[in-house]
Design goal:
The structure is a single chain. The protein has one domain: P-loop containing nucleotide triphosphate hydrolases (Rossmann fold). The protein has helices at residues 3-7, 15-27, 49-54, 72-84, 100-120, and strands spanning 33-39, 59-65, 89-92, 129-134, 140-144. The chain contains 5 helices and 5 strands; from the N terminus they run H-H-E-H-E-H-E-H-E-E. It has a 5-stranded mixed sheet. With 145 residues, the protein is of the alpha/beta class. It is globular and about 45 Å long.
Length: 145
């Protein structure tokens, strides 16, 4: 290898990921809660390490999808793992719809205090603004309840 090759700086971060990361950073200020969708079989491997920094200070929920394909005992360990870190977590099987109701209830529970404050200020009927993020592409979906 010559000196010219040593000076070459290679960026392995694909452009679409950088663009999405920037968009998430801009949009996160408009949401009340961030929902991170992870694979229940490999939660840490399916987690994007950038998300924690980008969403710092936001209410969060981890949704462990494909829980039907992973061991129930391990699922419960992962729920405990995230809750010990102060992040509520729920199990979901998106194919059958199992756990979706629990997910919605958990979001409402997490947001209950904030919604009460809004109601006390006379802002009745305010919608919960959520951002759903998943890896590997870290797509964002914003929905309103």
């Amino acid at each position: 290898m010559n000196n010219e090759e040593n000076k070459m700086n290679i960026n392995w971060y694909p452009g679409h990921m950088a663009k999405t990361r920037k968009q998430i950073s801009e949009d996160v200020r408009f949401v009340d809660i961030v929902i991170e969708l992870l694979d229940a079989r490999i939660p840490l491997s399916s987690q994007n390490p950038d998300i924690a920094n980008i969403t710092k200070g936001k209410k969060k929920l981890v949704v462990l999808n494909k829980c039907d394909l992973s061991d129930e005992k391990e699922n419960n360990r992962w729920i405990s793992y995230f809750e010990k870190k102060g992040i509520p977590a729920v199990l979901v099987d998106s194919n059958s719809g199992k756990g979706i109701d629990n997910c919605i209830k958990k979001i409402e529970n997490i947001m209950e205090e904030d919604l009460k404050k809004q109601t006390d200020k006379g802002r009745i009927g305010r919608k919960i603004r959520a951002m759903v993020l998943r890896n590997p592409k870290c797509r964002k979906i914003i929905f309103y309840k």
